[in-house]
Amino acid sequence: MPTAEALSHLVDDATVVYILENRRYFEDLRQIASQLAGLLVLAAAGSKESTSDHPMLTAAFQLHRDATDGLRRARPTLRARRHHEHVLEAASHLADALAAAERRLADVDPILIPLRAGYAALRQAANALPGFEIISFERACCGIHLPNEVKPA
Amino acid sequence: MSAYSLWVMEFAAVPNYPLSGLVYGAHNQGTRKLPYCYIVIKGQGRVAMVDVGYNHKAYGEVLANTYGVKGWHPPKTVLGEIGIAPEDVSSIFITHSHFDHMGNIEDFPKATFYIQERELSKWVWTMSLERRFRWLMLGIDPADIMRVVDLARQHRLVCVDGDRANVLPGVDLHAAFDTHTWGCMYVRVRNDLAANSQDSFIFCGDLAYTQENLRGFDPNDPEYIPVGLATGSQFNLVMTTEKMVNLVGGDIQRVIPPHEERLKDLYPSRITKNGLRISELALANGEKSQVR
């Protein structure tokens, strides 16, 4: 992830602060999307572990509460406003997906549809500001290395 | 007489990739071109592939602008160079679940996908871990997991548990657990269809990126040097390399790393009008060369 110094070449200081403060919540939402998708894989594969009381679902609910609280407290700058709208939209879709998963994990569509919408909103958020990545390319094996080069979003 | 035609087809590349990212410990030794390639296996009345590349629609721009990936072309264009359409592909073997190997599932609408069950189950387990373990998720795109859900629902997903011989005639899947990823696998094509094959090729995914992983830097004193990234262990990578090399009778030129640009020095090849390289490893009976 780009450092504060690298980001400061791309956006104003207040927006750098916004990015640093909210990066974690963005990653939490991405993690929730991953966890839900993982549970759906188990369900689609007919795994015995794919039940609505799966501990990963409990963890995802807690993570979602924390992330949503944090994002609501955020004070987006004008530059960050679009990003903030997208992450809140993602949080809302993921809340719907979580609620559907809690009702019945084996019923895939009511979970998958808001999950996809939430993930799409996260992708839009990642495109709206530098410093947010939907995939950890930076240290991945075949996507690395234009070091310290971050293009303006 | 070959049962299958085998091509390695470039669809994008990083022109200057640090060698240290390819060979463990090769720091400050410059850069080389890192191509991203499809592996096409055609014969016995079918078309199969090893891996499907990354999802350009989703993050191609990020890879291009931030990570130096250049020259991407869609599967329709790339495969079209040898007269194949993505819809013709009926079987795809996913060596591992990183974004650049299984991100483009949706462009192959009629294929059945084979992946190690352990690769999926360990993914899911990893997702249950707390934030401080997030390194274990690098290279994974959550959207790929959603696509796997769709594959399962469409009955186009085959979860393999360990080795499986003759998944197609003369094509074997070999597990390489706890190596580059949790549930890696490599594909062996026995091109003479013989059980004790004398004409095999191994498609190794990221178990090796380059010839140096297979023979080291000194041709007179070869050694195995693993790739840099191992979610499992370097030990397992080295021992897997030994297995792969043994399966091709010690001829390391028949272990094919899809990111190795210098395949052009070993096999007939050509550059397409889009600047992408095609290397032709073998031609099935009656098949016309696509590089001459």
Task: Give descriptors for this structure.
heterodimer; A: 153 residues; mainly alpha; 5 helices; B: 292 residues; alpha/beta; Metallo-beta-lactamase, Chain A
Structural class by sheet pairing and helices of chain B = alpha/beta
Largest sheet: spatial strand order of chain B: 6-5-4-3-2-1-13-12
- Overall pLDDT metric of chain A: 84
- Calculate Rg of chain B over CA atoms: 18 Å
CATH class of chain B reads Alpha Beta
- From the helix content, strand content and strand pairing of chain A, which structural class follows? mainly alpha
**Count of strand segments of chain A:** 0
Question: What is the string of helix and strand elements of chain B?
Answer: EEEHHEHEHHEEEEEHHEEE
Unreliable stretches covering 5 or more consecutive residues of chain A: 147-153
Terminal CA distance of chain B reads: 19 Å
Helix content of chain B: 10-25%
Indicate the percent of residues in helices of chain A.
Answer: 55-70%
Can you give a write-up of this model?
The complex is a heterodimer of chains A (153) and B (292). Chain A contains 5 helices and no strands. By secondary structure, chain A is mostly helical. Chain A has one domain (20-128). The longest helix of chain A has 32 residues, at 13-44. Chain A is elongated, with a radius of gyration of 17 Å. In chain A, 48% of the residues are buried. Residues 147-153 of chain A have low confidence and may be disordered. With 292 residues, chain B is of the alpha/beta class. Chain B has one domain: Metallo-beta-lactamase, Chain A (4-Layer Sandwich), CATH 3.60.15. Chain B has 7 helices and 13 strands. In chain B, the strands form 2 sheets. An 8-stranded mixed beta sheet of chain B has the order 6-5-4-3-2-1-13-12. Chain B has a 5-stranded mixed beta sheet with strand order 7-8-9-10-11. The longest helix of chain B is centred in the last third of the chain and has 14 residues, at 234-247. Chain B is globular. At the A-B interface, helix 2, helix 3 and helix 5 of A face strand 1, helix 1, helix 4 and helix 5 of B.
